[in-house]
User: Fold these one by one.
Assistant:
Number 1:
Amino acid sequence: MKVLIIMGSQTDEAVMQECSKWLTWFQISNDMVVASAHRSPDKVRDIIVNAQGNGYGVVIAAAGMAAALPGVCAAYTSLPVLGVPLDGGLPGGIDALYSIVQMPAGLPVGTLAVGKAGARNAAVMAARILALGDKNIATRLEEFKAQDYRI
């Protein structure tokens, strides 16, 4: 299983590279793509509707400001969606955090911390999800814990 990292803007890539780096350490294949819920909604829909068929087991969606992207992703798939709020609007990314965490019942998005810590934790959470069916990832998680949660 792979992890899809989708972000609303190319400017988000610097933060989400941390997520990709950590997923790679866990030996989890991952792809990063830019698609905006506001500027390219059809592209988002096409990517997410086809994600499971393309071998993805988890979606990590990152966005700032209105941060609609994780919720839109959750609306189009049954895969686990992890949301990473990014700074860009109100100080500290609080607007993005509220947008992602306040999903209506039935459309869950696992919401992480704002910024790089959230990007890194999204990778760890994705590893934990995928480890349920993959012993190699489970082993890497144990190594991670033995290293005091540092990569």
Number 2:
Amino acid sequence: MLVMGILNITPDSFADGGRYNSFETAVQRAHEMITEGVDIIDIGGESTRPGADRVSEEEEQSRVIPVISELANTGVRISIDTMRASTARAAVAAGATLINDVSGGLADPEMLQTAAALKVPYIAMHWRGQSKDMNSLANYENVVREVISELQERISAAHDAGVTKENLIIDPGLGFAKDAHHNWEIIDHVGDLVSLGYPLLIGGSRKRFLGGDSPDGREAASIELTKRLSTSGIWGVRVHSVKPHKEALMV
């Protein structure tokens, strides 16, 4: 199971906004993750926390492209966390080797064809709407069945656009248009998602459903979640800290 390290170059991300919001601090944090054995660094320049405002295309790219270019020769795999096809193109040109799109191609009609043309792995997350609206969209009769059905729609759309099965990864989107009990229901039935036959990424790190008074206070629970998922057959976990999760998987 892979460990994807989160690098938010933003002032407003829910768990670490502002900590690495400069070229120097972001590059330093990336090298720390490399030392700790990270498998993939996921670099994003736009917060997708509930209620977050979108930033311009220019602002997003000014945050991430210089850092990706700086890290391109380190040998570590770099993922670009973006909903914009233009940012994905610029990031891959700078050295990124994966695209992580929390909208699963719904936010930008050019994204799926762009991912297909770039021929890099594409992560399609379950998504129902922008951050401003996501909390109001957490309405399900059967969350596992509905998330699977909506992911299957994105899988079909990706394949229709030319994304190959070998390059498609899926993510149920914990915390995105989902309440705490929805997230736990998905975790309890993660095997149903694995059985779809695509690599599965889980991103639950430091999210509110884990409890605790603050994101940092949820770190122990995040590590326990990684332990729980370690035998589930998923492809990877997306986490804020690398070393303790790598150690948990080794144990």
Number 3:
Amino acid sequence: MTYMEALGIITKRESLGIVPGLARIYRLLEKMGNPQNELKIIHIAGTNGKGTVSAMLADAITRAGFTTGLFTSPWVTDYREQIQIDGAFISKKDFSSYIEKYRDNDCTEFEFLTAVMYKYFFDRRVDYAVVECGMGGLEDATNAICTPELAVITSVSVDHTNFLGDTLDEIALNKAGIIKKNGRVVLYPNPKTHNLFQTQCKKCNSVLYSVDDAGDSRLNNIRTVKTALDVLGIRSPVKEVALPARQEYIGQNIMLDGAHNPDGIKALIKHLPKREITAVIGMMRDKNVRECIKMIAPLCKKIITTTPSNPRAMIAQELKAIAKMYCKDVEAVEQPIDAVHTADYDFLLVCGSFYLARDVRKELLPYKM
């Protein structure tokens, strides 16, 4: 089986959407010999920052001399970036082999990918597997595990309300589902839900390590990683890791960011330059679109709305109607790449979705660097 054939098989399952529950992946992992039960897993949940924390933590553990698996999502540059060992993507050959061997299952795309990740990490005998939840925690496919070596919970805010609940407490409780019996938990500063996580740890007889608030999301992420390393007994300096579409500069005049909820937009705003900003924005309709636009639009001289390549995307014209409430100069351009080329700017911000970042990043790199 070629890599492109394997990629087609798994991505075709995106049409199944998000289906809560662990029964399907448990069946597939059973066929694989339950590799997840043999791994030292560092399980990471949260609304914002979990990808950054996961990457920094994996990097630090690798530099300490351990073979380290890293599982993150969604992808931006290459589908295989979601499964890495010591910074190297799973090979096309290995990826294709696993897809071909285990294609007979009823899993969703993310469930299938998660199972492949656990099997690959087991086969490669990684010392640690840093595993980022896809969504929530309790019924996330990555949670088909026993008590992990360490659970880490990053910044928690309201997002994915269709699946996780309408209130902050409901969402936090879902993410607390990665807390298992007799475990260890590192908690990013979450003052509004701290007591909830503390209660869950007590119920599970798990030890809670709370991170002191530095007053800045970037510094809090670093502190969270340092605390996790201390708990694991691993001595390694923490370095910030450049990730695609996380306040990513392309040249001097373009920033690409996947922030798609109010807390993410709030963190983004703190790092925007004091320049005239033209923004290309695309978002999923199941996000808190109005609140995000209300926050970012007043900072923009012009906004070009567009439609990311995802069935859940809000169409450009609909997003334009919302943006017009907060910015005078708004234009709708349906295709993301056309939207980028249409922009006349001093500083260009492309934001609102990792799917949008995926659509335009390759086009921007040769275009402006």
Number 4:
Amino acid sequence: MSFAFIFPGQGSQSVGMMKGYEEVSVAKETFLEANDILGKDLWAMVNDGPEEALAQTVNTQPIMLTAGIAAYRTWLHINGQKPAALAGHSLGEFTALVAGGAISFKEALMVTHARAQAMQDAVPAGVGGMAAILGVDDTTIGEICALAKEHDVLEPANFNSPGQVVIAGHKAAIERAVLIAKEKGAKRAVILPMSVPSHCSLLKEASEKLAEVLNSITLSMPTIPLYHNVNASLSHSIDDIKTALKTQMYSPVRWVSCIHAIQQSGINTFYECGPGKVLAPLVKRIDSNLTGIALHDFATMKNTIEGAA
């Protein structure tokens, strides 16, 4: 059976998220490797917190990359077969690139740390924000943004599933949008606990800094087909990969299109590899004929492999 691996991004982190992996040597060794590279104790942070440190963008992004690769290495270590396709949601694309052999784990850690720092520097805390809007179509999302932005920046950031879109921009515009969304019939409109407004034009300056970092590292073509979330397409060159990663910072994540593109290649099963259960449920919402399974802990991973045997 062919399947795709999809990797979560920022927002899936939580204290204790690697529970069940404590005795899995390859998982813990991945964290220790990251500790040595970054000079931070990421393993202690994910197990003991504090939550505030885990939530800081400069910590969250390398941690989510490390957690995803720890899970992926564990999957292979216990004889899970390689996926037929890869994709990552936002930051998760870097995890997918490591899994696909396009970038080394060490360089991916350095890039994600630099990416996070550039994002924090571009938009000071309290200036930007993000909100999730549920229960309205994409056209209505555009109308909400147009009405609420006034002289600020406000744009769709994540097309996660039909009827679930995240918007990003200036904090004041986000607050106006939440009120307008409810007037427009949204089932729910809630401001997310994120200070950095990802995937909107406020991060264009940060994307230029990322481009400089990407030009300083070694990239290869993935050995497994990898679908970029910014355009739901495969790359045909190293420059394509760099462009996708740079553009992603200030452009929306087109997750619905990405899942459909993988589906059109003949794949109907998607394994979410890493902590949390965010992406697997979205798969089913995107198309009820698809299967999404969250490999959120070691026991689930082991049971999944044994069930497929």
